[in-house]
Amino acid sequence: MVGWRAVLLVTIVKSSEVDCAVDDELIEAAAPLSNTPTVFKLAVGRAFKWDRGAPQWAAAFVASNDAIPRLADLCITLRSLEAAGMELSMVAVAGGLGVLPVLECVTKWRDVAFVDGNVNQLAALLTTRDLLEERPTLADYVSSPVGAALHAQLARDPEAFYLPGGLRGRAQFAPSSDARPWDFEYLGLAPNLTSLLPPDAYPELAWSPTSPESYDNARRAIVNDINPTLYLAPPAPDELEGFGGACLVWASMPDTRELEEALGRARRDCSLVIPVRSCGKGTGTWCDGADVHNARLLDPHALWEATARRACGGMYARVVHYWAPEDRLSLGGPHDLSWALNVAHDGATSHAAPEAASASVDTALLHMFFGKRQTCDGGRGQLFSQIVSNLPALFPRLERVVVSEFVTGAFDPTNPARVCLPSPDELADLVLAALPDFRRAETSYVPGGGAARRSVFVAFTR
Questions:
Q1: How far apart are CA 147 and CA 128, in angstroms?
Q2: Can you tell me whether residue 135 is helix, strand or coil?
Q3: What residues contact 347, with CB distance under 8 A and at least 6 apart?
Q4: Which of 19, 63, 235, 288 has CB atoms 3.0–4.6 Å from 117's, for a disulfide?
């Protein structure tokens, strides 16, 4: 079953060369790691011949020309979601591992799955994994960068890396000639095709971890959190688990939505799908920090909905959602689709059969009752307490109450209501006074607009 999703969509830039065939067979490929022996599965097209989903056999990228706009803001958002208890997973095009700076942002990825239509690029990924395992600290990496080591290894013995087992030791690459040149001109460069995009092509974009902790995060993602199946085409829809959390998609630089959307459909039960996009330096899609790319990743509304779903108990909680008086006109709008029942402060509802819906409700969510005010009217606390105290009678199966509110820092300094916004502790006092059989369970914060804390959820259980 496809889970509830909030999807953030932004402008797509340039296409990655990944075959989009699905319906996979599985072929095992060994991944020699000294400390963590693992056998990966290589998912190939069902036909494995000619143009029917057969993998590409081509030189591998050893570096990336991906630049990621608003990376710092993206990291703030991901770290805040992680701090709120949300599981984070990713489906990424392998390529030259331009995704590494994004992997730095999260302490513990639940799962990172890699896709690439070039079977040799997946081999380069596993070799990079070996090299990262051999470099346990950032100091080790700085003294011997992985990209340079991979580039040197491929140039030194390309047959050992590229030739299939049936040819290895029995054939060699023919030397470069006018008829079959090995050199390929790329942006004025002419690298030998034992690998593409050497690490010194764009030294300013070479992976440079920002701290020992961020290096540990990215290294852990590649060494420990990598999915045991490597995909030569996007996984089938809902093939991968989304764990009810935020599912990131990295398609490098696509110029159509097809690849990115295929990767986004790969995980089931995602509360949030976040496509992260880059710009390719040296290409027609190059952008700078002023560009719009990734700007909508900071949209607080989708982030709020996803975190609200987790605070309310997960994908299958039956939630009654209460709109604040200022949002009365939102009743019956598109946001109502996210919840089992929607109610205004005055009891009005958009549901065709509210009695039946009320019987199934197990969670109540109160949405910004104080933060939407423009003045400090004294009656809002009384209204809030009255609604909360009536919840058990209206919803016999009620087991959880969640209050969502802005944090003070999210308010414009000139907003008069800023001075009377309740703190999480004050919200808890109001709820527990109205519901003495409940206890405070947790407090979590929601990012948005580049801020780590834009709003707060205070959850209570019976």
A1: 8
A2: coil
A3: none
A4: 19
Query: pLDDT in tens for each of the 462 residues of the chain?
Result: 333 333 343 322 222 333 333 334 444 444 444 445 478 999 986 667 766 667 888 889 998 888 888 888 889 889 988 988 889 999 999 999 999 999 999 999 999 999 999 999 999 999 999 999 999 999 999 999 999 999 999 888 889 999 998 999 899 888 777 888 776 655 555 556 678 788 888 888 889 999 999 999 999 999 999 999 999 999 999 999 998 888 999 988 755 568 888 898 999 888 788 888 888 776 665 665 444 667 767 778 888 888 898 899 887 899 999 999 999 999 998 888 889 999 999 999 989 899 999 999 999 999 999 988 878 877 899 999 999 999 999 999 999 999 999 998 877 778 777 888 999 999 999 999 999 999 999 998 888 777 778 899 999 999
Count of CB atoms situated within 10 Å of the CB of 342: 26
Q: What is the dihedral of CA 412, 417, 419, 420, to 10 degrees?
A: -150
Domain extents in the chain:
6-296, 306-461
Cα–Cα distances (Å) from 113 to 17, 228, 245, in that order, read 17, 8, 15
CA dist 1 and 316 (Å) reads 12
- Helices 300-311, 71-83: crossing angle, 10 deg rounding: 20
Is 149 within 8 Å of 187 (Cβ atoms)? no
Q: In this structure, are residues 117 and 94 in contact, taking their beta carbons and an 8 Å threshold?
A: no
Q: Are 79 and 105 in contact (CB under 8 A)?
A: yes
CATH fold for the domain made of 306-461: Rossmann fold (3.40.50)
